[in-house]
Amino acid sequence: MREGNSKVDPPFSSNDVPMLSGEESKVPPNLTSPSIPALPGGDLVLESTPISINAEERNLTEHHLAHFREDPVRFMMQMGAFYQGTGWRSYKNYIGTRIFYEGYTEELKERVLNSERVLYMIAYLAEKQVNLLSQTMPNATPKMIAKRKKKLEKELQIVANGMVDKLIADLNSVRFI
To answer: Is the Cβ–Cβ distance between 136 and 130 less than 8 Å?
Structure first.
């Protein structure tokens, strides 16, 4: 918010509006993407190349030889282990960013409540309500309006807290999930 001005500035520009027309939403070809070779008859030749994100590749199924066509019983046993959360597919030692730890849910809730857009909407709604109040009460002083705006922002913050509590699942432990 600007000093001395009660108007709330949006945290995003008008250029952030999603593109709806098909012509504007086309993505230009990437200069680094390889061209697809075509045969003289117009048929495409596709080569299987491994996808590597970090230049380190690991075959997770290398030591687990249970493939459905080769050994359906063993494959079903591994699927059972997957659903029970045991073995290499369990959540106790999974690959990737850790998401199940104490305080993770509170951290998520705090991030959402302190996000620029949520704070903007709270200030915007309070400002809108105060403007309606000042129109209905012509004898309202600026001090009274500012006090009412603060009160409205606190009430909207409580509503936002309640919504976030209901919308974000508890991800503090694997046992809960």
So the answer is: no
Burial (Cβ within 10 Å: 0-12, 13-18, ≥19) of residue 25: exposed
pLDDT in tens, 1-44: 444 455 666 655 555 544 444 444 444 444 444 555 555 555 55
Sign of CA dihedral 64, 67, 70, 71: positive
Which is nearest to 75 in space by CA: 87, 90, 64?
64
Global pTM reads: 0.48
**Helix, strand or coil for residue 57?**
coil
Cα separation, 140 vs 134, whole angstroms: 6
Q: Count CB atoms within 10 A of the CB of residue 50.
A: 6
Distance CA 122, CA 128 (A): 10
